[in-house]
Every structure is written in C-alpha cells, then in structure tokens.
C-alpha cells in the first residue's frame, strides 16, 4: 500500500558502483569511502510526504525531505544541493538528479535503488532491519 516504503534498511549489495560514481564525477576519496559502505537508509512516510535519511558509518547522515509531485531541495550522492520534483511511477519513487536518474522501490521486502547515468546502471539493494 501507500506506506510500503517506511522502515529501516541496511546495505546488502550493489552492482556497477565504481563505473557509476566515476561517471558522475565523485572524487576518489568519496568513492573509496562509499564502496561496500554499510549505509542504513531510514524512510519515514506520511502519505505523499517522505523523509529519506542515509546513516553512514562514523555518524555522517544525509537527509532528503520531499513530497511527491512538489519541488524539493535535494542532495546528491556527491553532496551537491539542487531542486527536484520527485514523482511516483508504478509504485517507484523517481527523482531526476543533475546528472543521473534515481528510482527506489520495495521488492520482496528489500529496498532496491537504481541510478542511471550515461548508460551505466548502478543498483543498490538494502535489506529491511526495522
């Protein structure tokens, strides 16, 4: 249903990480920091309002707060701030970042996030922990 996204998810695995982060121009220290990083993603959902927080090992967090269909201030993987309108398409959350498109969906109880940049598809899967 509508509350499908709410929960806490822990990084389980990813595909094409290095290719993708190189394509979007992440610095090598950020790339090393993020590789196989046990990020915990916490999603709070209230209807169309979302708070999407990523907890990184060592205490760093990034939070994106948005409402489906309304423009919101967002932050990229690389820490850049910009405005975007997040959409819901076929049960997936879709956001267009400055140089990549990001989708998130719940698939078999897991959070599956896919980012696409210049033909490189980065897939990150996280398992529900709460």
UniProtKB/TrEMBL annotation:
It comes from the Eukaryota. It is found in: Cytoplasm. GO terms for molecular function: lipid binding. The keyword Transport applies. Gene3D superfamilies: 2.40.128.20. Residues 7-24 form the Cytosolic fatty-acid binding proteins domain. Pfam families: Lipocalin_7. GO terms for cellular component: cytoplasm. The keyword ATP-binding does not apply. Belongs to the calycin superfamily. Fatty-acid binding protein (FABP) family. This is FABP6 protein. It comes from Oceanodroma tethys (Wedge-rumped storm-petrel).
